[in-house]
């Protein structure tokens, strides 16, 4: 017969103390290991931060931004903010003026421009702006600058430019424009099939992003549209839309504070959004809109605009959802000395 002896109370308490003591030691040991890992991660992070500070890829003082601005997209308003802030934020703003208002640059001048932008150290950091098509710096063996841009709904931009040539804008109200005195409405121009209102003339935003290839200049060219989309995603730091200009300024300030610190507040306080508004614009009739929208060029330019808009909204969404986001590096092997 098995006889179970009752464990004395004192012995039982001693066993409990031993078990709890063992668990406490194990717990402390695990805490110590976790603290060691945290310390190691922090140390690695400090080492990486120090390495990046010693030899950063993109130093603020060497930053180059290129804004190949599309006409009648609100570019004057944005550039006005940059000119107002450049002295305070210690960067330079340079206007690239091309003779005969050409949007394409000869090959030799492209090379000179790339060389100047890359090597003109006394002008760094800098924002270059002008009405010219995208230039691939890597084609000339140079490091790529950060390209930025704004685009606008193609028909709105087309109509605005039409009336701008007749009535000017509030930026320089006394300057006589090319079509001054011509009071033909946009509706009349389209219905009478005046060459100025040919939908092919809307082929502008795609070429600006496509670049200097021959196909970029061909209205309705599918390759040009795809190339413009590819460049927007791979070669542009940020592309905003005229209709959401303040958001564009805000994201640039958050992303590049060394250049655009205070830009959002300045944009709001200084009413920069009201610069260069066309003095007179008549709303087009539905028949005119239908005629324009039936053209292949409008459809492709609008497809590009919608593509850019979707990408910009995606960037905005990431910013709004991830405020205060921190990126760290861990599990680095071999461990830094």
From TrEMBL:
Main location: Golgi
Domain of life per record: Eukaryota
Keyword vocabulary terms for this entry: Disulfide bond, Glycoprotein, Golgi apparatus, Membrane, Signal-anchor, Transferase, Transmembrane, Transmembrane helix
GO BP terms: heparan sulfate proteoglycan biosynthetic process
A Pfam family reported for this protein in Swiss-Prot or TrEMBL: Sulfotransfer_2
Membrane topology (UniProt): Single-pass type II membrane protein
Molecular function GO labels: heparan sulfate 2-sulfotransferase activity
TM ranges: 12-29
InterPro entries: Heparan_SO4_2-O-STrfase (IPR007734), P-loop_NTPase (IPR027417), Sulfotransferase (IPR005331)
Gene3D superfamilies per UniProt: P-loop containing nucleotide triphosphate hydrolases (3.40.50.300)
Intracellular or extracellular location(s): Golgi apparatus membrane
GO CC annotation: Golgi membrane
Subunit structure as annotated in this protein's UniProt entry: Homotrimer.
Family: Belongs to the sulfotransferase 3 family.
Annotated protein name in UniProt: Uncharacterized protein
Organism (species): Phyllotreta striolata (Striped flea beetle)
């Amino acid at each position: 017969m098995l006889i179970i002896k009752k464990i004395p109370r004192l012995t039982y308490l001693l066993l409990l103390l031993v078990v709890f003591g063992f668990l406490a030691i194990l717990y402390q040991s695990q805490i110590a290991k976790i603290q060691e890992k945290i310390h190691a991660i922090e140390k690695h992070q400090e080492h990486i931060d120090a390495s990046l500070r010693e030899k950063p890829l993109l130093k603020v003082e060497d930053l180059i931004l290129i804004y190949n601005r599309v006409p009648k997209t609100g570019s004057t308003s944005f550039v006005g903010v940059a000119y107002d802030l450049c002295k305070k934020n210690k960067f330079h703003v340079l206007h690239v003026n091309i003779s005969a208002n050409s949007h394409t640059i000869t090959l030799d001048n492209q090379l000179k421009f790339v060389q100047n932008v890359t090597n003109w150290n006394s002008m760094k950091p800098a924002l270059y702006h002008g009405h010219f098509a995208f230039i691939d710096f890597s084609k000339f063996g140079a490091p790529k600058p950060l390209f930025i841009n704004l685009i606008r709904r193609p028909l709105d931009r087309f109509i605005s430019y039409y009336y701008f040539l007749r009535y000017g804008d509030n930026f320089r109200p006394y300057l006589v424009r090319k079509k001054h005195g011509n009071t033909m409405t946009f509706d009349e121009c389209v219905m009478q099939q005046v060459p100025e209102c040919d939908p092919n003339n809307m082929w502008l935003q795609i070429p600006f992003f496509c670049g200097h290839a021959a196909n970029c200049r061909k209205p309705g060219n599918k390759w040009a549209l795809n190339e413009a989309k590819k460049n927007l995603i791979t070669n542009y730091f940020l592309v905003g839309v005229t209709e959401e200009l303040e958001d564009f300024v805000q994201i640039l300030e958050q992303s590049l504070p060394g250049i655009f610190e205070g830009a959002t507040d300045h944009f709001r306080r200084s009413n920069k959004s009201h610069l260069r508004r066309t003095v007179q614009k008549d709303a087009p009739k539905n028949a005119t809109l239908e005629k324009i929208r039936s053209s292949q060029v409008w459809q492709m330019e609008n497809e590009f605009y919608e593509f850019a808009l979707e990408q910009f909204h995606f960037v905005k969404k990431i910013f709004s959802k991830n405020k205060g986001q921190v990126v760290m590096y861990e599990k680095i092997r071999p461990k830094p000395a």
